[in-house]
Amino acid sequence: MHKTSRFFLILLVCILIVSSVGCKKSSGRNGKLYLYNWTYYTPDSLVEQFEKETGIDVVIDNFASNEEMFAKIMAGGNEGYDVIFPSSDYTAIMIKLGLLAELDHNLLPNLKYLSPLFKEKAAYDPTYRYSVPYFMGSSGIAVNTERVPSDYDRTWAIFADARMAGSMSMLDDMREVMGAALKHLGYSGNSTDIEELQRATDLINTQWKPNLVKFDSESFGKAFSRGEFVVVHAYPENVFAEISADKWSTIDFFIPPEGGMMYIDNMVIPKGARNNQAAHAFINFIHDPKNYAVFLDTFSLPPTTNTGASAFMKTEHSFFSIEDLSNSDNISDLGSKLELYNELWQTIRYQ
């Protein structure tokens, strides 16, 4: 673990003080570091290790969606947290609104381990001025190979296969579903061309939706494990977490070759954070390759973000590789054009 000289200085002061009056761990809010992260996305072992190494207590609040996180931040919650974990589209919004503090790269030497692919995909902040990637991943398709015809199509066209009608689901997520259709048609997953968007909507409504049980972003992993669905549009970690490892060989998870909608979850420091230096220390701690390998092993994720972590990983099975992301598009902030999606999504979900 590489630490900065200033952070070492704080720890040294604590060590000197503890012999007489006891170390107070760090400045600000009784030495606590407040994180606001996605549910089940912060390995307990890493939190415990960071606390042990630094003497800083970590307090974690969770959110289930970017929308939930953003609403709280806009209501003044940015002053209550030191590190927040928004996805890339909301990171871009927060940058535009001036909600984020600029990062001190002198305190983040482990930036050298970040994947070059990130800069290619992260047009919103390619120089890490305001954000550091936490994980770069993608949704895809999970297939129960024991219960589907052997000649199924390993593209988004699988949802048009009427042989599996009544046993498939797609995510209840506008950008994910419409992005999949756009990519399948050869367009950008962030297209704002009304004709392209209409073609994608027609594809979903006429060819995919008739074969779906529902759009589901909450229980698809459990439903797949119970056999209620045999094909699901999914995040792999949610699927494999519900199934014992001895059955993983029966699951074919793939990102279609035409690409899909990938995501980059980031670590950012909001303006007004009271433990700015401890926040930098935590971000740098995460991207120490040995620590990042623990994060990846915990969730059986591939090393898409940190180039040094693979040497320390214990997991032999990854759900996808960094190469699988090459044709995918990162979900981008569409600004006022988002309303085009909202209008068309209503015809998909409610008509």
TrEMBL record:
It comes from the Bacteria. Signal peptide: none annotated. InterPro entries: SBP (IPR006059), Sperm_putr-bd (IPR001188). Pfam families: SBP_bac_8 (PF13416). Its main location: periplasm. The keyword Zinc does not apply. It is found in: Periplasm. Keywords: Periplasm, Signal, Transport. This is Extracellular solute-binding protein.
